[in-house]
# Entry
Amino acid sequence: QVQLVESGGGSVQAGGSLRLSCTASGISSRINYMGWHRQTPGNRRTFVASIHNGGDTNYATAVKGRFTVSRDQRTVFLEMNSLKPEDTAVYYCYTSILQQDGSPFTYWGQGTQVTVSS
# Structure
């Protein structure tokens, strides 16, 4: 069974920092990339950051210079600095793999709440 377990969410004042982590298990195939999306109540999930198996990273414009994504084997981290109230959301980690037939598939974590107060 494939499972993604994430943690590290919480409440923090504007300008503070939080570090999220997510570990994927039960995956035997190659992981192409891992990353994070976020979602506010009533809104769809939006891209935050990703890291590919070669180490290349991508960031949403809104978080560039403030967030850092990193990876250690099958654990992905999101270091969030200089947090703003607009960063308040549920953060979901994901991992993209290549299945036996060569097709891609994405697994999602359960989400962790991040609340930033002014």
